[in-house]
Design a protein that fits this description.
With 454 residues, the protein is α/β, with parallel strands linked by helices. Helix content is 45%, strand content 8%. The chain is built from 16 helices and nine strands.
Length: 454
């Protein structure tokens, strides 16, 4: 009798726990719940609240899970997460783990799917691409310099029945540039390569291919306008590369610019130049150094290439199966700026695209909750990879307002126009309304914000 009573009590207790869990799950999933919103806002690290931007071009675009999601069998797809320097290294690993931990998909266990910032000398596509269904891959800084039909075939790994979902992690180019400067000028040094880097050297792939000659065909022969940028208004012109090179040499190891600086390494320049010059030098390196940098322009190039696959190959067969390319290559472009603002909501959006109905709404909520909590812990703990909310500090202890650095870049004669054009390409890929011709460059007003970097 006593044993039966204990079993009944235990069953009742478990039932209560389950009921409380369901009630709590509904509260968590209900975005409009004031108490839940208050709890979430109270958990946001102060440095992220201080660093909020007044630039509407970085605000998260609203997303609501559709009433009907696709029925997706993850085992039928390749998953490829692409990112660049300062657009989500740690985030890309987290997204990969969300998939592998909630499905039967496996990771290749490598840092990249193929060589980063490298390509086949003749096709100009990534080299040795061999991705397989039911696998998820992460790739940093791929070189997509080939024609789009060849690129589509490479992304499908020359397999006739393959389908691929690409998650393209990008970022507003101005916040990307300032984050790059903040990260590499930090003390103590975080990545040793800045001690030996030669930012003004004219790097060549295979000793013969320059970065400009690989990029310019995309920029000058763009098939259709993207955000107002196209063949009649390219991201940049051939002479722009020379202008950036001349300015780089004026800043780097030039005693006329700063006495004694001819003996400095790249890191010394980032630390000891005036911060407005330091961010200029770092951003030139992010544009022009194709082998060891150049990710700002590489990101723009790849957005254009993936968009052209979507547009031009929409009705065309990639590999002779009778299936249009658009049904086999699905791309979702997400901004790191969005994940910073709304880690929970962006995780849900990623999971909806990647998995559809393959996992339940409850599972997605749990994954998104855990990611938000882990991200906030990293921010509060001062993770070195996270520059959002951190001020730029000079060796003498002076704090530099990041909005001043952004204004410097926007007003720069060459970089302002180039980054403004990249901004419009990024905005188009993210789904922002098209800006006026002057909206992305030097003419845009920047409202100073108290606090940290974007």
């Amino acid at each position: 009798m006593a044993m039966s009573t204990r079993k009944q009590l235990l069953s009742l207790a478990l039932g209560c726990v389950l009921l409380l869990y369901i009630i709590n799950l509904n509260k968590i999933s209900h975005v409009g719940d004031p108490q839940q919103q208050a709890y979430i806002e109270a958990s946001i690290p102060p440095q992220l609240l201080q660093a909020s931007s007044n630039n509407p071009r970085r605000e998260v675009l609203p997303y609501t899970t559709p009433d009907q999601l696709d029925d997706i069998d993850p085992k039928e797809w390749i998953y490829l997460i692409i990112h660049y320097h300062k657009t989500g290294h740690d985030l890309s690993r987290s997204l990969r783990d969300f998939i592998t931990n909630s499905t039967e998909l496996k990771s290749n266990g490598e840092e990249n799917a193929f060589a980063r910032r490298h390509h086949d000398q003749y096709t100009k596509c990534p080299k040795d691409v061999d991705m397989r269904r039911s696998m998820i891959y992460v790739q940093v800084s791929p070189n997509f310099f080939c024609d789009i039909k060849t690129l589509a075939i490479e992304l499908l790994s020359h397999k006739k029945k393959t389908k691929i979902k690409i998650i393209h992690l990008v970022r507003n180019p101005f916040s990307m540039a300032i984050s790059n400067f903040n990260y590499h000028s930090a003390y103590p040094v975080i990545e040793p390569w800045v001690m030996t880097a030669r930012p003004c050297d004219q790097e060549k792939f295979f000793g013969v291919q320059s970065y400009p000659e690989l990029l310019l065909p995309t920029f000058l022969q763009q098939h259709s306008e993207i955000g107002g940028v196209g063949a009649n208004n390219p991201i940049m012109y051939p002479d722009d590369f020379k202008a950036l090179s001349d300015r780089c040499h004026a800043l780097f190891q030039n005693s006329f610019n700063r006495p004694g600086s001819e003996k400095w390494n790249y890191y010394n320049h980032l630390r000891h130049l005036d911060p407005t010059q330091g961010v200029e030098l770092a951003t030139i390196q992010m544009c022009s150094s194709g082998v060891n940098g150049g990710d700002l322009l590489r990101m723009a190039n790849n957005i254009i290439k993936l968009k052209e696959i979507e547009q031009l190959l929409a009705q065309e067969d990639c590999t002779g199966t009778g299936v249009p390319c658009r049904e086999r290559i699905h791309t979702l472009t997400l901004s790191l700026d969005w994940f910073i603002q709304d880690p929970y909501g962006m995780t849900i959006r990623f999971l909806d695209f990647a998995l559809g109905n393959a996992i339940t709404k409850g599972e997605k909520i749990r994954i998104a909750q855990r990611y938000r909590q882990s991200y906030y812990r990293k921010v509060s703990g001062g993770d070195s990879h996270i520059t959002k909310g951190k001020n730029v500090e000079t060796p003498k202890g002076n704090i530099v307002n990041p909005m001043l650095l952004e204004s410097t870049l926007r007003q720069h004669e060459v970089l302002g126009r180039i980054l403004g054009n990249v901004e419009r390409v990024v905005d188009d890929a993210l789904g922002y309304p098209m800006m006026d011709a002057d909206g992305g460059g030097g003419e845009q007003e920047i409202v100073p914000v108290e606090g940290g970097s974007n």
